[in-house]
């Protein structure tokens, strides 16, 4: 049994460079690329028009971008290592504008790499090259470095390539270049689980919406599923033939979306523990894939990467 | 009488006066710039002498030139100090001189000082051979240059290397026009001036290779003879290219513009930086002419090769022959002309194993230094007011490199066949046979 998704629309050349990250709100997809701007495409209008382009957001390009679940706060990290935050304007225009400054400089915090935002955008978590986690509290007018987590000794720490915050904000998960996956308790700063790793770089980690599972994927070309009640490895999804660059849970937690370096996107059913759809719109690398928050009848997702375009898929009515 | 003798080197007559006029202003400002910025950094090779001593040599050359400018304006004879290596005493070489040899010595010395100054200010290396070829008529012999260079070094109380002058080009070249009568396959890169005498008509491609080890394994495989792309020339400048290697490639390209020149670099920040040095020159050398090859084609290794490699390294037993190896091999075979017979045999003799490229490539994580360097290169590239397609490609590759946190090195291969096979694929793809 498979599910069918149709290409709803493609925004060709949404950027002039590789798109490294996308993030979705109920009404828009934000995208960041090797160029200096962050673009906003409306998803509630026909043909997904560009509604805002934040120019000079990151001079050397931007590699990570996240938006809070409530769609009000965004954060981005550029290739020069600079961390920026954004919020939806209070004027009601729907435009994004600069939010609080995050003092990310200096040796103590390390260069930020991946990032995640809590549901309401009040907590920002970043990984560093050295494998540390920085937890920032954001509020109007200020940001504060609330906590720093270390995975262990300096010797064992490895580049923090991916990060996620659980929907309830209690936990942070990180995926590392050496294959390690850690889950921290945000209150205590302690490691809750050190999950059996993938042995290869972990380029994506994601908490299920209910917070009961964690998915991790990367250069092993597999998606590993962990139950968080006891920290057990419960499933492995195989089928990708290239490094997995990005994963995302659907709103209901029924499906996982994954995008790989060979341009293939796959949808996996958690129940069936199987791939239910494969799409290869492009042979160029997919670098970011995201479900759109469900607003209508049909599920939708968006993929982006080295073909510089945004491709939107819609679930076909009825299943084959 | 002296004037008459001097006119035997008319070209230099002009350059003396021009350079002198230019000296007090531009050369000084260049020098002070170079000093205040320190070494222009990655894209040049400089000897490990302290910048201070380099600076002092620059200062002394400029003092000499300035005093000559003064002499000119005061209608006084021009003088250059020189210390005899035999007696250790300093004497002056002046112009006008009473003998033809005196005039020659003055002119030659001034030219050496000028070239040395250029090399120091731009932090690049020049060879003694290169100096000789600047004006063979003037110098008469290589030996004459060598002696004067050593005299200059002695006069300044520094080693010859501290003048940024080395014995010979560090570059190597192999290919049909370059063999010696002793049967040596690999020779030193000849001076750029010698290019006009080369007959490159049978040559269909030139490959500039970053690493000497890769170069040597391809030479031992006779890739320049057996390539599917026809007869070619292999060359390397062993990492960051020296001035004479770059002048040579430039000369080849301008004399034989129809021959494509490809670059084979590592997929790492140094590889990208070296490529850029060939194409655009190095930071400190913007004033140099006839040293760049903007048309240099980047053959690899690029991010797209990573994917291909990854497909081949799949641990699974792939049955579909239409993916990966099968396809490329069959298209290759069908595209081959008769002269490529040997390489077809070569390709066939390789097992279709997924692991076969492993011997030739190595994937590593970027080090902290690599990342810093990549970001610095990105920054340099973004400062260009208008990026052309080349620069956009470099930017894109560097960003993906950072994103993946991977570099991809071409190993000193025992199994150069892999490399040859890969090159065959690439070259035939580019030349439109596939």
Automatic annotation (TrEMBL), chain A:
The keyword Repeat applies. WD repeats lie at residues 195-236, 237-278. It comes from the Eukaryota. The keyword Repeat applies. Coiled coil: none annotated. SUPFAM superfamilies: WD40 repeat-like (SSF50978). This is WD40-repeat-containing domain protein.
TrEMBL record, chain B:
InterPro entries: Spo11/TopoVI_A, Spo11/TopoVI_A_N, Spo11/TopoVI_A_sf, TOPRIM_Topo6A/Spo11, WH-like_DNA-bd_sf. Pfam families: TOP6A-Spo11_Toprim, TP6A_N. It comes from the Eukaryota. The active site is at 133 (o-(5'-phospho-dna)-tyrosine intermediate). It is an enzyme of class 5 (isomerase). Residues 23-48, 316-327 have a biased composition (Polar residues). Residues 206-321 form the Topoisomerase 6 subunit A/Spo11 TOPRIM domain. Transmembrane segments: none annotated. Its EC number is 5.6.2.2. Belongs to the TOP6A family. This is DNA topoisomerase (ATP-hydrolyzing). It comes from Apiospora rasikravindrae. The lineage of its organism: Eukaryota, Fungi, Dikarya, Ascomycota, Pezizomycotina.
């Amino acid at each position: 049994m498979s599910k069918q998704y149709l290409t709803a629309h493609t925004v060709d050349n949404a950027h002039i460079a590789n798109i490294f990250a996308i993030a979705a709100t109920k009404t828009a997809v934000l995208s960041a690329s090797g160029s200096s701007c962050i673009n906003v495409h409306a998803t509630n209008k026909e043909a997904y028009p560009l509604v805002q382009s934040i120019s000079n957001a990151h001079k050397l390009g931007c590699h990570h971008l996240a938006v809070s679940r409530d769609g009000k706060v965004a954060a981005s990290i550029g290739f020069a290592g600079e961390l920026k935050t954004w919020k939806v304007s209070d004027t009601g225009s729907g435009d994004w504008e600069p939010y609080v400054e995050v003092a990310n400089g200096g040796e103590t915090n390390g260069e930020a790499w991946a990032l995640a935002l809590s549901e309401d955008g009040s907590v920002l978590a970043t990984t560093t090259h050295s494998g540390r986690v920085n937890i920032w509290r954001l509020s109007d007018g200020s940001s504060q470095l609330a906590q720093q987590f270390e995975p262990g000794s300096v010797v064992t720490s490895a580049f923090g390539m991916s990060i996620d915050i659980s929907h309830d904000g209690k936990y942070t998960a990180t995926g590392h270049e050496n294959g390690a996956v850690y889950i921290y308790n945000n209150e205590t700063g302690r490691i809750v689980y050190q999950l059996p790793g993938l042995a290869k770089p972990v380029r994506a980690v994601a908490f299920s919406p209910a917070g009961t599972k964690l998915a991790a994927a990367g250069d092993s070309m597999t998606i590993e599923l962990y139950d968080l009640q006891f920290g057990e490895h419960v499933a492995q999804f195989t089928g990708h033939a290239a490094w997995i660059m990005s994963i995302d849970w659907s709103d209901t937690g029924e499906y996982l979306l994954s995008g790989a370096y060979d341009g293939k996107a796959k949808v996996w059913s958690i129940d069936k523990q199987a791939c239910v759809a494969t799409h290869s719109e492009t042979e160029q690398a997919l670098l970011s894939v995201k479900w759109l928050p469900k607003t209508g009848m049909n599920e939708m997702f968006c993929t982006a990467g080295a073909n510089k375009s945004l491709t939107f898929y819609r679930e076909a009515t009825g299943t084959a | 009488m002296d004037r008459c003798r001097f006119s035997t080197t008319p070209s230099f007559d002009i350059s003396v006066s021009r350079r002198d006029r230019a000296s007090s202003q531009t050369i000084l400002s260049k020098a002070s710039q170079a000093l205040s910025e320190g070494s222009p950094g990655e894209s040049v090779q400089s000897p490990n002498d302290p910048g201070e001593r380099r600076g002092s040599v620059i200062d002394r050359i400029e003092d000499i030139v300035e005093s000559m400018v003064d002499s000119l304006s005061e209608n006084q004879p021009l003088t250059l100090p020189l210390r005899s290596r035999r007696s250790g005493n300093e004497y002056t070489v002046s112009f006008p001189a009473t003998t033809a040899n005196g005039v020659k010595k003055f002119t030659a010395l001034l030219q050496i000082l000028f070239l040395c100054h250029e090399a120091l200010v731009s932090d690049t290396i020049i060879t003694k051979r290169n100096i000789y070829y600047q004006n063979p008529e003037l110098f008469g012999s290589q030996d004459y240059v060598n002696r004067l260079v050593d005299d200059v070094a002695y006069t300044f109380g520094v080693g010859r290397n501290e003048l940024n002058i080395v014995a010979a080009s560090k570059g190597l070249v192999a290919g049909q026009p370059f063999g010696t009568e002793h049967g040596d396959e690999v020779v030193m890169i000849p001076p750029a001036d010698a290019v006009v005498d080369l007959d490159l008509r049978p040559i269909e491609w030139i490959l500039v290779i970053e690493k000497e080890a890769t170069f040597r394994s391809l030479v031992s495989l006779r890739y320049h003879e057996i390539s599917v792309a026809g007869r070619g020339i292999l060359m390397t400048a062993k990492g960051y290219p020296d001035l004479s290697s770059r002048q040579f490639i430039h000369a080849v390209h301008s004399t034989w513009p129809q021959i494509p020149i490809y670059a084979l670099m590592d997929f790492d920040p140094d590889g990208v930086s070296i490529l850029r040095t060939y194409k655009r020159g190095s930071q400190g050398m913007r004033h140099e002419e006839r040293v760049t090859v903007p048309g240099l084609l980047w053959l690899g290794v690029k991010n797209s090769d990573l994917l291909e490699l990854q497909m081949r390294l799949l641990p699974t037993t792939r049955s579909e022959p239409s993916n990966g190896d099968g396809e490329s091999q069959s298209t290759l075979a069908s595209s081959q002309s008769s002269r490529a017979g040997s390489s077809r045999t070569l390709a066939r003799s390789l097992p279709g194993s997924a692991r076969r490229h492993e011997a030739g490539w190595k994937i590593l994580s970027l080090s902290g230094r690599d990342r810093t360097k990549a970001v610095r290169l990105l920054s340099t590239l973004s400062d260009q007011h208008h990026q052309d397609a080349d620069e956009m490609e470099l930017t894109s590759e560097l960003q993906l490199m950072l994103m993946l946190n991977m570099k991809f090195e071409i190993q000193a291969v025992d199994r150069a066949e892999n490399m040859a096979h890969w090159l065959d694929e690439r070259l035939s793809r580019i030349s439109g046979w596939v």
